[in-house]
């Protein structure tokens, strides 16, 4: 008799419990069905359908060009490949800033059309109205502070944020505000480790870091970066766990050579 093993879904409630018991949360980006299936089966807790798809999937220099329709397409593809992980979807630039009604419409589209489990927004006090309105509709929200790529032209650089006291204090205040509003978690990107530790200790909700040191509740990386598919991006916080770009290039070169030499397909590979 075959045994059916129940798959326990990761929920926002479980992430909170993981923080409370000191268990670290693993999070990676995903943009398509095949990759999502691999990451989910490997045990990643949270899959972020990041607006970084604008960079790694579409080749844009920034995250700004990607549209809500494109994010929904990527998110739906990821959701279909997931059996366990919590799927969080980035709301793209222009879909929530400055207009809470537009923010709610955008979030509802992501949940209805893509089947996402939660959404993520960049910013603190300046987007509180949008966060409140989305949460009122019963949609879970993850915050994002520190380096916020959608504001790259405001900052003018991708360097470490919140090194000065005033900006660090605002980040702490924004993190506490996001928690008070009802966000289930906060991402901190590229800030000093000491500040990230301070925020993680102050908040009761999980704090996920990317370039924020080891003393937070979890870590997130762009999957193409950590697998070595992309080569140009080499920040200090990135650890490459494989060099798939080299493996893929070698495989394609061997395939091309076999085709040109008429070694592929062989008789065994023909009908």
From TrEMBL:
Q: Which cofactor does it need?
A: Mg(2+)
Cofactor: record remark: Binds 1 Mg(2+) ion per subunit.
Write down the NCBIfam families for this protein, in alphabetical order: panB, PRK00311.1
PANTHER family noted in UniProt: 3-METHYL-2-OXOBUTANOATE HYDROXYMETHYLTRANSFERASE (PTHR20881:SF0)
Keywords from UniProt, A to Z, are: Cytoplasm, Magnesium, Metal-binding, Methyltransferase, Pantothenate biosynthesis, Transferase
Q: How does it assemble?
A: Homodecamer; pentamer of dimers.
Q: Name one GO biological process term.
A: methylation
User: What is the protein name given in its UniProt record?
Assistant: 3-methyl-2-oxobutanoate hydroxymethyltransferase
Q: Which HAMAP family match?
A: PanB
What residues does 3-methyl-2-oxobutanoate bind to?
51-52, 90, 120
Query: What is this enzyme's catalytic activity, as reactions?
Result: (6R)-5,10-methylene-5,6,7,8-tetrahydrofolate + 3-methyl-2-oxobutanoate + H2O = 2-dehydropantoate + (6S)-5,6,7,8-tetrahydrofolate
Its biological function? Catalyzes the reversible reaction in which hydroxymethyl group from 5,10-methylenetetrahydrofolate is transferred onto alpha-ketoisovalerate to form ketopantoate.
Question: Which pathway is it part of?
Answer: Cofactor biosynthesis; (R)-pantothenate biosynthesis; (R)-pantoate from 3-methyl-2-oxobutanoate: step 1/2
Which gene underlies this protein?
Answer: panB
Where, subcellularly, is it found?
Cytoplasm
Say which domain of life the source belongs to: Bacteria
Family label: Belongs to the PanB family.
Positions annotated as active site in the UniProt record: 189
Q: Name one GO molecular function term.
A: magnesium ion binding
Supply the source organism for this entry.
Hymenobacter psychrotolerans DSM 18569
